[in-house]
Amino acid sequence: MDRLSPTTLHRLPIGILKPDYDRARVATGIVHLGLGAFHRAHQAVYTDALLKEDPRWGILGVSLRSPETRNALAPQGGLYSVTASDGAGHQRRVIGALTGLAVAPEDPAGLLADLADPRVRIVSTTVTEKGYSHDPATGALRADDPDIRHDSANLGHPRSTLGFIVGGLRLRRQQGLPPFAVLACDNLPANGHTLRGLVIAFAALIDRDLAAWIEGEVRFPSTMVDRIVPATTDADRAEIGAALGLDDAWPVVSEPFSQWVIEDDFGGDRPAWDLSGAQFVRDVAPFELMKLRLLNGAHSTLAYLGYLMGCPTVAAAMAEPDLAGLVADMMREEVTPTLPALDGFDVATYHAALLQRFRNPALKHRTAQIAMDGTQKLPQRLLGTIRDRLARGLPITRLALAVAAWLRYVSGTDEQGQPIDLRDPLSQRLRALADEAGPVAHRLAPALLSLTPVFGNDLPKDSRFSSAVELALDRLFRNGTRATVEHIRQS
Ligand code: CS2
Predict the structure, then answer these.
(1) What is the pLDDT of residues 55-72, one digit of tens each?
(2) In its UniProt record, which GO terms are filed under biological process (predicted)?
(3) Which residues lie below 8 Å from residue 478, measured CB to CB, with a gap of 6+?
């Protein structure tokens, strides 16, 4: 089969949308760090829809580590397809927004030069939670992180997200250019604000004047991003190749739903993303909190409990009535009361839509994929909600079970005695703590809850939290996950 590329694009079957603009006229106005499936099914899609009207906003897509995406997409001239499925039908579209592809470690100085191109006005990020080199409990810079240590001594050849952003800004300042705006698109609370604090703290390690210039000149709008985009599988590639009649080496499969709420604070030109469905607002915080606590909090709960119950995907976990019921109860009873009201927004409709989205049978969203990087995800997905409830003296039964499920997962062996492939930046420490404590709740719970980068100094000391988690973990070990979920669901 021939490859999807600019020369074969005209052969796509009718019904598959493709770029309606002259790609040769598109300039690179955005450098995006973290060219994963999510960016390609989200920001790149919103941008693609505008390029006919405003060709200034093509995207240089940068992978910070591996060359795989570049190797797959370069022979396709940066083209790839997005298939949105709800289980009943497909919508397919070829995206042409990528004007370039780069692999940062291959030529860090070259990437810095790209960041200093005056046509670039925005640098955006989807580098996952762990890509921010921060302490997840406090948002503070981890100055002892090996990449941060390296970059502070070698800013001409950085490795980290912060290194590239600060290195690029330093070049622009040296050349008398205005800065770019930095647009964080990861699932972190106050993501722009958090990234701003990290960028300034990192810059201050190198040059205080530069840090002060960034503080005064650079905008970091926060965003709420939402679209469920599981990792692409070989089966997806085969199915999509057949539908396109062309081989797409790295297509993306997603749900139809997509949402992007952006703080309108760019300090200059920005794409009219509202014309392609994004929402510009003054304050993103209530949207972010709602999405992180309801969607991502429920997702992680389904991932840990579902995995332990033997469910390979989120849809399979949702087919377990007690588990689906427990998550719905948690959203309604425990999470929603902690959220600020949003004008004209019906939270019950949002809950129902989320549960429906989780059930999407077309998405093979692996529980093991969502379970990854728990140390980076738990704080904003579950622990913030728990803190808010404890401050008001409210019970945390289901949330504590979700945390206990993570502890059970981290203990390293599933209920059939099989090893769990623990992927987490703190996996070595987790493994050591779990091995030392053994699979016993009254030892494992205090050992893991003592991880201050995750739980802070406050939560482990609060006996309402530690005893609820320990009790739930004890039930998981003694009675198994299925029986525990059923018990808590019905109590
Ligand atoms: C998921 C998210 O992998 C995960 O941890 O919870 O990627 C989720 O699919 C997105 O945030 C949905 O917008």
Answers:
(1) 999 999 999 999 999 999
(2) mannitol metabolic process
(3) none
